[in-house]
Amino acid sequence: YSGKKGNQLLKEMLNKMTVKDYKAVPVVIKEDTSVYDAIVTMFLEDVGTLYVVKERGTLAGIVSRKDLLKAAIGKQSLQDLPISVIMTRMPNIITCQIDDLLIEAANKLIQYQIDSIPVVKPLDNGEGLEVIGRITKTTIAKAFVELGKEKEV
Ligand code: ADP
């Protein structure tokens, strides 16, 4: 078949891949967690980004490896420094939702030069975004590999 048709097939496949089917489990910490404990959590959970949540599990902030490194080269005691002081906070967080296309989430990773995007669900009362998953560069790499194995559309 022609190249154009192959392209069309690939597009059809990409349009079926949604965040819902590929999202990973989010690793969350509370706002009053110390930077020290956040570093420990990052090692124990083996992730590159932690999501910071309020009491009811709604998104408050996000911390990356470099955010933690930056805090660690400062003079403060990491046990006494709450994560909320150094995190990137709402509303400046790039998020995605369950029905978004995976390729849209991938585009955000590139566009905003970030490693991870929280998958959120807006609460009915309008009081915040519940964190229900994560999309990372690893998620995209896995989906890419899977695409190569796909037998039929
Ligand atoms: P690193 O800083 O370890 O390279 P990132 O590139 O993911 O990791 O993060 C870069 C900066 O952007 C950090 O300050 C981080 O807090 C922030 N950040 C990470 N993910 C997001 C996101 N989804 N929305 C907004 N800011 C983010």
Short description:
Residues 17-81, 87-153 form the CBS domain. Keywords: CBS domain, Repeat. The protein has 153 residues and is an alpha+beta fold.
Query: Total helix count?
Result: 7
User: Strand percentage, roughly?
Assistant: 15-25%
* Number of β-strand runs: 6
- Radius of gyration over alpha carbons? 18 Å
CATH topology: CBS-domain
What structural category arises from helix and sheet content? alpha+beta
Assigned CATH architecture: Roll
Oligomer: single chain
- The gross shape turns out to be elongated
What is the C-level CATH assignment?
Alpha Beta
- Provide the number of structural domains: 1
CATH homologous superfamily grouping: CBS-domain
Give the overall average pLDDT: 94
- Main sheet strand line-up: 1-2-3-4
Outline the low-pLDDT stretches.
none
Heterogens: adenosine-5'-diphosphate
Biggest sheet, open or closed, and with what strands and sense? Answer: 4 strands, mixed
Features:
153 residues, alpha+beta, CBS-domain, 4-stranded mixed β-sheet, two-stranded antiparallel sheet, 41% helix
